Design the sequence.
């Protein structure tokens, strides 16, 4: 008996060791990728890099100002559309969980979340690019579609966690339903909704596929939303696949900046969720 | 016994097919404390929630019959107006976690978008918190979040929030069942002071509490109003055998 218990203990220790080992193993690729991008990219980044457009082949210097501005404009336009629509959709889903409409729209949200981004791109190509041409608007619409399901689901999930007593408290004071939602439910779930929004931005800011044949890309600084526009991931794609070393360095620098954005958004989200003690 | 403020006749309520309140007729007089007691699942909370039309907010819940506030049929009034006139305090303290103590008290005004000079709001806050016996404890931290208070203080904050709307009636749904004994006694003391200005209807699980705080007691059993009488009478000489059995502890 004594020896059997000893054997079991040994098994437990070995098992725990294996788990810890693999926990480390899964973080190694992440660390290697991060370190490599930082090593390659950080030397490229300086003020000049951020405020200039890419230089022609052969000329030294050049920067990613066109891609930075383009990405910000397109993410902003996508957010303006997707955040309100997504929040309202999420509110509907959390408020009316039993209805048929909620069931089918919930299903659609899940399917939309699973649609490959290149497919979203091609749909927008036929809907928007064919009639009005390659443009930042087309890119933004594609990004907004990518963003919607994340905002909807995170809003829904956050609001579901709020206790009913909160709603009852407001209703018992004679507050009309729409004000209960806008003044009590949404503010109380604000941290969760905000995290969802930030995660969705982190997701779309790195999307390349839907931009390939919608926003196209542009080597010059442009803020015209009906004309092609550059974006960070697209710039990385174009310049990394080029045969020139200068351009490769540009792509590394842009990758570093993109990584910085995504990490900042993710870490801020983590901090918010921890501070407000919410789960997503 | 001058005049009746809330009255129901042949009032019924359902959850889906489940008939939870059966033909309840009751007349409640102004400025009294009415205790509603009965075993679990007897429909007392449902009846209470019917009075300010909170019952109908639950999916599948329906109600039928006459429920009057003075001479007006509650179910013909705008539910929002009904809830202005009939305030409610819940089982668990539920202050708004995103609002300060100050804003919690005037939440009924703020959330309805009613604008007033700040001095008026200051007045309402002080008056309501004084009536709910919380002013001295929180007057220096009015702008802290309401959720920092203890459970008993939160419940008194919720009472202040209900009082601030100057309702006619305040409904209490087992207001002390989530509180410790000390907080419970402070809330019970409040009832005596509040009935000067308001009519209180208190659902309670606790017979001693009903006996301590109320002028009249209603005993519900299986959805029916079995007996409604002066509390003293009810606890010394109940007229119905079921009441007798309940208060002597034969079932609970």
Sequence:
């Amino acid at each position: 008996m004594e020896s059997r218990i000893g054997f079991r203990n040994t098994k437990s220790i070995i098992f725990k060791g294996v788990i810890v080992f693999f926990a480390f193993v899964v973080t190694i690729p992440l660390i290697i990728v991060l370190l490599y991008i930082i090593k390659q990219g950080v030397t490229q980044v300086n003020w000049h890099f951020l405020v200039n457009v890419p230089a022609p082949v052969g000329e030294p210097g050049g920067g990613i100002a066109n891609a930075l501005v383009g990405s910000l404009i397109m993410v902003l336009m996508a957010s303006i559309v997707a955040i309100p629509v997504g929040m309202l959709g999420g509110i509907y889903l959390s408020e009316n969980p039993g209805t048929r409409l909620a069931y089918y729209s919930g299903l659609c949200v899940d399917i939309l979340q699973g649609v490959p981004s290149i497919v979203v791109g091609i749909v927008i190509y036929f809907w928007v690019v064919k009639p009005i041409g390659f443009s930042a608007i087309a890119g933004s619409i594609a990004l907004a579609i990518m963003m919607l399901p994340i905002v909807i689901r995170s809003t829904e999930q956050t609001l579901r966690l709020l206790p009913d007593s909160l709603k009852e408290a407001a209703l018992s004071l004679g507050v009309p339903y729409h004000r209960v939602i806008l003044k009590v439910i949404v503010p109380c779930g604000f941290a969760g909704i905000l995290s969802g929004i930030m995660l969705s931005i982190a997701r779309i800011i790195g999307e390349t596929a839907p931009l390939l044949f919608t926003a196209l890309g542009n080597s010059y600084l442009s803020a015209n939303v009906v004309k092609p526009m550059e974006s960070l991931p697209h710039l990385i794609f174009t310049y990394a696949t080029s045969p020139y070393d200068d351009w490769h360095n540009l792509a590394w620098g842009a990758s570093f900046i993109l990584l910085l954005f995504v990490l900042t958004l993710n870490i801020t989200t983590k901090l918010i969720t921890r501070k407000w003690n919410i789960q997503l | 016994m001058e005049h009746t403020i809330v009255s129901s006749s042949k009032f019924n309520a359902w959850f889906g097919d489940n008939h939870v309140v059966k033909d309840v007729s009751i007349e409640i007089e102004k400025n009294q404390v009415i205790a509603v007691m009965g075993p679990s699942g007897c429909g007392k909370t449902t009846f209470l929630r019917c009075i300010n039309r909170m019952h109908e907010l639950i999916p599948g819940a329906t109600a039928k019959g006459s429920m009057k506030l003075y001479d007006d049929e509650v179910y013909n009034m705008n539910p929002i107006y009904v809830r202005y006139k009939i305030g409610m305090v819940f089982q668990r303290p539920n202050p708004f976690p995103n609002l300060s103590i100050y804003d919690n008290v005037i939440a009924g005004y703020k959330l309805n978008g009613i604008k007033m000079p700040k001095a008026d709001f200051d007045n309402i806050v002080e008056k309501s918190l004084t009536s709910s016996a919380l002013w001295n404890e929180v007057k220096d931290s009015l702008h802290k979040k309401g959720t920092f208070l203890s459970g008993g203080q939160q419940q008194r904050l919720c009472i202040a929030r209900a009082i601030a709307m100057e309702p006619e009636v305040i409904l209490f749904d087992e207001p002390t069942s989530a509180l410790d004994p000390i907080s419970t006694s402070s809330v019970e003391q409040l009832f005596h002071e509040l009935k000067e200005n308001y009519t209180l209807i208190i659902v309670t699980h606790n017979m001693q509490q009903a006996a301590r705080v109320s002028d009249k007691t209603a005993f519900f059993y299986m959805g029916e109003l079995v007996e409604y009488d002066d509390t003293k009478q009810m606890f010394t000489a109940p007229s119905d055998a079921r009441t007798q059995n309940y208060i002597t502890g034969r079932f609970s």
The interface with chain B takes residues 98, 163, 165-166, 168-176, 179-180, 183-184, 187-188, 190 of chain A (CB under 8 Å).
